[in-house]
Design goal:
single chain, alpha/beta, two-stranded antiparallel sheet, 5 helices
């Protein structure tokens, strides 16, 4: 069974994902907003308010009936050391940006793979550095391009999980975030197409 169309339960990231994972609407959901912990720099990475211990989630229910489960992409429902870790919420495997603030960058310095930090060969960059489209040069845009594109890494790992589990029931959550990033690592031409 493949679900390809749905309405988001809320207009922001973490509560929408929490409501999808728990089946609860906004009036009953524990996470109702992007409750930020920590800050944007890697040194302040704190994630968002985690799902509490004992939360019933789709992957937990599916595991009870023999499914293998994985998640690739943006999480925002708890860091690796909290009850909100994807491993503690029913996923057998995950590759993720746990702190959704890190998802403002196509080329983050790291991802999380099964609660272990996976360092990427990308420089630290301030993705919120303002550019003036009237004066920005191609070199200004080059600043936002790293060496390892996070979306490709997460997609490759998700496809590997699907390939390895295709003969048995599995649930794969793809929360790839390429469309929710700031416009970073793009060309000047694309910038003008987007903002005019």
């Amino acid at each position: 069974m493949t679900f390809t169309q749905h309405y988001a339960s809320t207009p922001v990231c973490a509560p929408s994902r929490a409501m999808l994972m728990t089946g609860k609407h906004g009036g009953h959901a524990y996470i109702r907003g992007n409750y930020e912990l920590g800050g944007f720099p890697d040194s302040l990475e704190g994630g968002q308010m985690p799902l509490p211990e004992g939360t019933l989630t789709i992957p937990k229910m599916l595991k009870q009936i023999g499914y293998r489960t994985d998640m690739a992409g943006k999480w925002g429902l708890g860091m690796n050391s909290t009850p909100g870790s994807p491993l503690r919420q029913g996923f057998d495997y995950y590759i993720s940006v746990l702190d959704q603030k890190q998802a403002h960058n196509f080329y983050p310095t790291h991802l999380w793979e099964n609660d272990v930090r996976l360092t990427l060969n990308n420089p630290v960059m301030d993705v919120h550095k303002a550019l003036n489209p009237a004066t920005a040069t191609d070199a200004d845009f080059e600043y936002y391009i790293g060496k390892e594109y996070a979306t490709d890494i997460m997609a490759e790992k998700a496809l590997k999980f699907i390939s390895e589990n295709k003969e048995q029931p599995f649930f794969s959550l793809s929360a790839i975030y390429a469309t929710t990033c700031v416009i970073a690592g793009t060309s000047r031409r694309l910038w003008h197409q987007v903002i005019g």
